[in-house]
Amino acid sequence: MPVPPLKFDPVPGVQDRHIWKWRQNRGEAMVEFLTPAFGDEGVKPLPALKVSAQALNYLNFLIAEPIPAVALYRSGVLVRIPRPERFAIHKLIVADRRHGGPDQAKARKDRAQAAFLISILAQDRPDDLAEAFADALSRGPRWRERLEATLARMPESAEVLRGLV
User: Fold this and answer.
1) Residue 138 CB-half CA count within 13 A
2) Pfam families this protein is in (predicted)?
3) Alpha-carbon distance 14 to 118, whole Å?
4) Every domain of the chain and the residues it spans
């Protein structure tokens, strides 16, 4: 039996007319177009793709040096995904940005994901994790503040990371 094609409908923004989110019309999947920001985090046009994207600070760290993977769709689709150690460190930064605001539940989820990955990577790939953490720390005082603020709420993960660098 043939697999039906994936179809997505645009999700209009509340405050902006630019479309950067798309919802699968027969399911729950959501696709969000994101792009790195270095300051202004507004919605930016991506003319080559004929869509807009939400610009986010710190995203450049996450998407650097991606690794190949297979997405499970039909015969499989080759994709590039963030490195798990960068994903873990990025989650620490994002958790601080969301702390105390309307996204507190997402901040808890970010911390849980980071803690899980840090515990696994510290055993399986400690050098990669240490390198990603050191890289983030070296990017300036604001990066260090965000990491330290989140790690203050995660003493076990903080101990693991500080033991690596």
Assistant:
1) 8
2) NTP_transf_8
3) 36
4) 8-65+70-79, 83-164
Residue type, 60: N
Tokens encoding 157: 């993960």
Which two three-digit tokens encode residue 95? 């958790």
Q: Which two tokens stand for residue 125?
A: 């790939």
What does the radius of gyration of the chain's CA atoms come to, in whole angstroms? 18
H or E segment to which residue 125 belongs: none
Provide the residue-wise pLDDT of the chain in tens; the chain has 165 residues: 565 666 777 777 666 667 777 778 777 788 888 999 998 888 888 888 878 888 999 999 999 999 999 999 888 999 999 999 999 999 999 999 887 777 788 999 999 999 999 999 999 999 999 999 999 999 999 999 999 999 999 999 999 999 998
C-beta separation of 41 from 57 below 8 A = yes
CA distance 10 to 24: 9
d(CA 106, CA 78): 29
